[in-house]
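Hey team,

Filing this mostly as a record. A colleague (T.K.) asked me to run one chain through the structure pipeline before their review meeting, and I want the input and output archived in the tracker in case anyone asks later how it was produced. No errors, nothing strange. Just documentation.

Input sequence:
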Amino acid sequence: MDEEYDVVVLGTGLTECILSGLLSVEGKKVLHMDRNDYYGGECASLNLSQIFGKFRKDAKAPESLGKDRDYNIDLIPKFAMANGEFVKILVYTDVTRYLEFKQVSGSYVYRDGRIAKVPGSEIEAVSSPLMGIFEKRRAKRFFEFIQKYELDNPATQEGIDVKTVPMSEIYKKFGLEPGTQDFIGHAMALHLDDSYLTEPALQTYENIRLYMGSLARYGKSPYIYPMYGLGDLPQSFARLSAIYGGTYMLNKTVDEIVYGPDGKVVGVRSGDETVKCKAVIADPSYVPSKVKKIGQVIRSICILNHPIPNTGDVDSLQLIIPQNQLNRKHDIYIAAVSFEHRVSAKGYWIAMVSTIVETGVPENEIHPAVQLLGPVLEKFNSVVDIYEPVSDGKDDNVFISKSYDSTSHFETVTDDVKDIYARYWGKPIDFQGKIKRGDEEAE
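Output structure:
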């Protein structure tokens, strides 16, 4: 391997594949390596036999569940916000030509012991069962305020500068109850904890606007999801990279990251071969000495033969249980898809429950969420460590992604992609327009 690459990417998780594609488009010479013989890493989608083999070793799937080819079960399910940053990446790179997306039918929240649709506008707030009549009026006023608010027009701001005023003060101004604050902050703005309450309201304002805009785009819910599961996403970005000259090597061990006298990376060794490079982008498993464990995620993949109760029998949904509803520090997420997305046999649903582990008995933590699913045919639990890099990578040019968190949406993945891109380039990513594709030029 005498060639020198601008970047060697280690691991074919979604984060790494997106970056590989983006950097190839930017003209960088990219080599992408993975120790596995398949794309996706932790983000892979498995068929029925593979799921049983992974979690139960020699156990075989019951014939009643259908055929292997009927199933594409995500190990880490994520939905995309219709107007979100992830969709901007899809449009910018045009990888949508390889994928077909379908809307997720419902966005729900758990409050006071019951499931209800997340209101996404002042009109929905008025009819929501989440609130009493007086709270509905207050929520309607709040949503009207958000809808009309313009950052550069004081006449729309009612004396509130969201760039400086904390979100808690805005809730107080509109007299919103703690339960209402819960579903706005966690099920709409998708905050991971309550620290946002003491921070300037700008980010929450933008998140709520994103939710509303995404909901208005298709109706029913703000989320979309690819047909046949997430497994094709990493491969789609890999194809994009290859079109622009990227090289892929699967089933390739990574034995050492090689550094020069100045402490900066100069290559990656696999066996007795070393490829030269100027930078490395890697998932945490390839650089254990440069990451720290920040917690654990428990995920429970559940196979059902019925829709989730109390959701109007929808074929797919996201359900968020805000932390305060169960006296927790972290939200619990439920993502459910079905035959309509071609991830299961007809008449079956795949539901994934996930959260950050807080105790020594993780299964007990998700029990209240699993109960909401109704009878479960098969359940596959896993507890995995989550890592983040200990440095920004600028000193040694080794840029490391974060482990996938417990959320059932792509917003945190996209944040990581943008963060690594900016650290590598020294400039933010720009998704304006659509890239000029090499294969289109050839055509």
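Quick notes for T.K.: The radius of gyration is 23 Å. DSSP finds twelve helices and 19 strands in the chain.
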